[in-house]
Amino acid sequence: MSASHTIHSMFKGVAEYWMPVLQSSNFKKKGVLTPEEFVAAGDQLVYKCRTWQWASGKENMVKPYLPKDKQFLVTKNVPSLKRASDYALNDAKEEIVENDDDDGEGGWVSTHVKEKSDKKDNRAKVEEVQEIDTFDDTGGEEEQGAENKTAVNGKETEDDADEEDEDDIPDMDDFEEDNLAEADPGMLLTDNIKEDGKDTTATKSDNKNSGQSSPLTNTEGKIIRVSEPEDNIEKTRTYDISITYDKYYRTPRIFLFGYDKNRQPLSPKQIMEDISADHARKTVTVDPHPHLEVPHASIHPCRHAPVMLRICERMEEENMRTLLKAKVAEAKKQGKDTPKAESLKLTKEEAERVAIRIEQYLFLFLKFISSVIPTIEYDYTF
Amino acid sequence: MASESPPPSIARFQPLASCVDVSFWHTLSQKKLEEFKLSTESVPIVGTFGPAPPVVKSSASVPARISLGPNAFKPEELLQGGEYPFWGQLFNANTVEEFKAFNKKRMIDDEGKALWKDIESGACTEDPSRLNRFLLISYANLKTHRYYYWFAFPALNPAKVLTVEKPMQPLSGRFSPEVIGQIFKQHARKADSHFVVEVPSEKSARAREGAVKLLDLKAFSRMPPSARKGPSSPIYLFAFADPATLKEYPGWPLRNYLMYLRYCFPDLDVIEVCIVRLRDGPAKSAAAAAAAAAAAAAAGGATNYGEYTTTGWEPNAKGRLGARLVDLKSVFDPKTLARTSA
């Protein structure tokens, strides 16, 4: 953790304590939320997407300005199938959209950094890519390893626990107990569960030939390997994502916690692989989760409000444009070639329809977050 | 594929996968220091499962997960909407030797006996979620931030093998979309883990109105068998919320459920089950309808525990029966943390 970040976190902690809770809605002017608006927007998210849920967090960390049972939003086990490098092309496109702004200054990625140190940035990118490449290699190996597991036993645990102290890595093979294994015909064998002491490949090909066509021959406790469905279970990285309310910046804030395919937590470095290169080193920090204590990766919310404001404005503009187009088309139908300005005036109802409602805030927020973390597959709702 | 296999075939169930939040280990460490100290008494905990994430691509799917979060130590606390409980016992050892020395066979056997007692005494009829249970043995090394653990999801395994009369089929092949919609709508309101679906038979006048009712098992068990079996009586399906993610196979919780049904309703030859799967995603109703499936199983059940064995220790990442290890040094150790995030 860099010193400046630490100092800022401390300052923020103190300031947060003294700062009044935002009372009146400033969402249209500044893109910020009151706690009540955060709850309203969260309720809508939970209602629309059942995988998102309200959580209460630890008891001693309850924030008084939010309802006790609605402290933060959480969704768990979100699969992440690819690494950020696979999305490089998409990123480039999104970046243009992000920076397409009047003053050219207010982008989420601070644009002047990019312009001034373009070369440096490129180099950093190359480094990033190389890093990811090497990871992908080992990942591939591991996956291969998983397929012909008979060959590489014990290698996997070593790979996973390759932190500093190599001296006392426990050998998990010692924790296996063969006497527990008994015939369980009810257990569907998935790819990573195999019968002890049997040649997996043989069982597998056996099954491919016989399939389930003669299942009753296997009644005496012999287990057939079902070939079709288990291949569908792809073990991937998963993320627990939570959205908290940041009282200091008055915006939602994203916290991430990742696990690899064997359910080992990802190191901050590994998490960076899932975050688009432009943001990885700049806006993502590791901070203790405000409701869970455990350190999580987080996207720093200092620019959230202006970005959200712009997304909302753009969204409204877009809505307005479609509505006006429809109106003009209607007017033309009625035979007026150049519709008068008054006829294009919005009625109150129409204006309401065009305007972004507070309930939509978190959906737009997630949309924005998905450009920062392109690898996590949760933006399926909006 | 299951649809091609000729009946009857052996009933198979997708195993559950444990899924522990780091915040659970964090809470365990604190409790170990402040509350449990050297006690190895079992501690009640609760795991949950909720709606599965949407299918992101058709070739990939996730395991059926039971999650343990920071609130796992507060079983009395109300569950968040849309989550279903798995009741567990935690045995936390003081040393790695103690962890190894746990008599796993006896533990799961004891749990199976306790489950059977609950089935016999009617406790499971009162609260069917008691059928969903697990054991967790653990050893938390607070110095190295390594956590050894092993889950068991006890399942009663009858001596006579369970067979499937009819493979699983989407409910949409049998009932109209309105009926299925009703089931999901009413279930969303009640959120029981196990229940009974009553669909009026086609002959009855109510059928046209699509009057679907969800009963709890208590109400159903009080009905006289004749009311369930009459020629114009409604169709009854036993239903449960299923964390499983495979299209062709039901999930692990169905095992105990079938044993329970076999014991409580011995007059049924074949038990027909409605599997309710909650999956999030676009076009919710259509996806939900496709996810609901009915399977019929002729349970080769028994009436006393002597005829059962209990299985369910979770295999490790290598697929063998063994404990797992999670290394949280990178998360909890302040020194490592400072180094990696600098």
Superfamily (CATH H level) name of the largest domain in chain B: Ubiquitin-like modifier-activating enzyme ATG7 N-terminal domain
Strand runs of chain A, count: 6
The CATH class label of the largest domain in chain A is: Alpha Beta
Strand order of the largest sheet of chain B: 1-8-13-12-11-9-10
What is the averaged pLDDT score of chain A?
Answer: 66
Give the second-level CATH assignment, the architecture of the largest domain in chain B. 3-Layer(aba) Sandwich
Tally the helices of chain B. Answer: 11
β content of chain A, as a range? 5-15%
Overall morphology of chain A = globular
* Uncertain stretches of 5 or more adjacent residues of chain A: 89-167, 191-232
> Main beta sheet of chain A: strand number and arrangement?
6 strands, antiparallel
Helical fraction of chain B: 25-40%
Query: How much helix, percentage-wise, in residues of chain A?
Result: 40-55%
Task: Provide the residue-averaged pLDDT of chain B.
Answer: 79
Given helix and strand content, the structural type of chain A is alpha+beta
Q: How large is the count of helical segments of chain A?
A: 15
Radius of gyration of chain B: 22 Å
CATH architecture of the largest domain in chain A: 2-Layer Sandwich
What Rg of chain A do the Cα atoms give? 26 Å
Describe the 3D structure.
The complex is a heterodimer of chains A (382) and B (342). Chain A is α+β, with helices and mostly antiparallel strands and 382 residues long. Chain A folds into 3 domains: 3-117 and 237-308, Yope Regulator, Chain: A (2-Layer Sandwich); 172-230, no CATH class; 316-362, no CATH class. In chain A, 43% of the residues lie in helices and 11% in strands. In chain A, a hairpin with a 4-residue loop joins β3 and β4. In chain A, α12 (304-333) packs across α14 and α12 crosses α15 (361-372). The longest helix of chain A is centred in the middle third of the chain and has 30 residues, at 118-147. By secondary structure, chain B is α+β, with helices and mostly antiparallel strands. Chain B has 2 domains: 9-158 and 309-341, Cytidine Deaminase, domain 2, CATH 3.40.140; 163-298, Cytidine Deaminase, domain 2 (3-Layer(aba) Sandwich), CATH 3.40.140.100. Chain B is 29% helix and 28% strand. Chain B has 11 helices and 15 strands. Chain B has helices spanning 22-36, 96-101, 104-121, 123-126, 177-190, 217-222, 225-229, 253-264, 284-291, 329-332, 334-341; strands spanning 9-10, 16-20, 43-49, 64-68, 84-93, 133-141, 146-158, 163-170, 194-199, 213-215, 235-241, 271-276, 293-298, 308-313, 324-327. In chain B, β11, α8 and β12 (271-276) form a beta-alpha-beta unit. The N and C termini of chain B lie far apart (52 Å).
